[in-house]
Design brief:
Elements (H helix, E strand, L loop, with lengths): L1 E5 L4 H12 L3 E5 L13 H4 L5 E4 L8 H22 L3 E7 L8 H14 L5 E6 L4 H8 L5 E5 L2 E2 L4 H12 L6 E2 L3 E2 L4 E2 H12 L4 E5 L3 H9 L9 E2 L4 H7 L2
Parallel strand pairs: 1-2, 1-3, 3-4, 4-5, 5-8, 6-11, 9-12
Antiparallel strand pairs: 7-10
Length: about 250
């Protein structure tokens, strides 16, 4: 199977590329560094020639809900249109658990992306995943200074490589044409506690301050709005196991 990975040079994208390659698929990496621009659509038609499935893990680093919405909607519409022209049969999108319960800018943007993808011309499978174990390390190192400020969040983090493997598995299956079972980690944990563990084990050593986001979004995150609802897929690697392997 020929699989294109949109955002394939990002840190999650690289894991998806590795999983797909090891599974024996022919992989096409879609990224600006490979001559493809998801915002303008430049190079998409050429990149998707002969592709069976697209896995979209493209992302934007922003705290602006408006910017995130513009990015995800533009990318999704461009991908779906190019996929339809190329005869792609399946579009797989990574998303986030709880975006329909936590009304926060970035989450609202991802929820809108799901709707755009599912309304598009190519059958779509959406995988909602919990925050990755790696999110704790990113929260610690994203900004300089002696303090790391972390939103108060009860999460059930999962290893990114397990998410990548599930995306590839879904890509090789028939389209769900909706939401696949949610994928979370083995146990619910407080995000600030995870960031503190990373700081103690690997540094940089910082004070970790936890605070709730304002309004209903903050209440929802703090009270478990980002947790999986009901039965679903569960990753096997615990956060502590992931931390012991971190270099």
């Amino acid at each position: 199977m020929r699989i294109a990975v949109a955002g394939g040079t990002g840190w999650l994208g690289k894991l998806v590329v590795t999983e797909a390659t090891e599974a024996g698929h022919d992989v096409v990496v879609i990224a600006r560094s490979r001559g493809v621009d998801l915002i303008t659509g430049r190079g998409l038609d050429e990149a998707l020639a002969g592709v069976d499935v697209v896995i979209d893990v493209s992302n934007i680093e922003t705290v602006s809900g408006a910017k995130a919405t513009g990015f995800f909607e533009t990318v999704t519409r461009n991908l779906q249109a190019a996929e339809a022209r190329a005869g792609v049969k399946h579009h797989v999108l990574v998303s986030i658990i709880g975006i329909d319960r936590v009304e926060w800018g970035y989450y609202t943007a991802k929820l809108n992306q799901e709707k755009v993808a599912l309304a598009g011309p190519v059958p779509t499978t959406v995988l909602r995943a919990a925050q990755f174990h790696e999110f704790a390390q990113q929260s610690l190192t994203r900004f300089g200074g002696p303090v790391a400020v972390v939103p108060a969040m009860l999460s059930q983090p999962v290893a990114a490589r397990e998410v990548a493997a599930e995306l590839v598995r879904l890509a090789a299956a028939e389209p769900v044409a909706g939401l696949a079972p949610e994928l979370a980690g083995p146990e619910p944990l407080q995000m600030a506690d995870l960031v503190r563990k990373v700081a103690r084990a690997h540094g940089p050593r910082k004070w970790v301050l936890s605070f709730p986001l304002p309004g209903e979004a903050g209440k929802a995150m703090k009270s478990g709005g980002a947790l999986p609802q009901g039965p679903g897929l569960r990753g096997t690697q615990t956060f502590d196991q992931w931390l012991s392997e971190l270099r």
